[in-house]
Design goal:
alpha+beta; Membrane-bound Lytic Murein Transglycosylase D, Chain A; two-stranded antiparallel sheet; 15% strand; rod-shaped
Length: 96
């Protein structure tokens, strides 16, 4: 019984490790957006984040992509938004 349990644990550990090693890295494409009156960095990031993403991570990507010194934006400013592309693994995990 202990050998079977040890083999199952080892198999699970190897399976999990392999998934982590061979997991697809996120792929992004750039979308240009013009800031309108009333827009905030949070509202723009929230608009372009997917269900599984933290809005703060999207805000960080926007700041980095545009070499911004702060998260303050102004109307008329054109921002590059790194949008997460759907990968094959995302599609498969969604059960589609």
């Amino acid at each position: 019984m202990n050998k079977i349990l040890a083999i199952l644990c080892l198999g699970f550990t190897l399976y999990t490790g392999m998934n982590m090693v061979f997991a697809d890295e996120a792929v992004y494409y750039n979308q240009k957006v013009t800031v309108h009156s009333g827009d905030t960095m949070w509202s723009i990031a929230n608009r372009w984040s997917d269900d599984k993403e933290d809005v703060r991570e999207v805000m960080h990507r926007i700041v980095e992509a545009n070499n911004l010194k702060s998260k303050h934006i102004y109307p008329g400013q054109v921002l590059t938004i790194p949008v997460k592309a759907v990968t094959h693994n995302d599609f498969m995990l969604a059960g589609k």
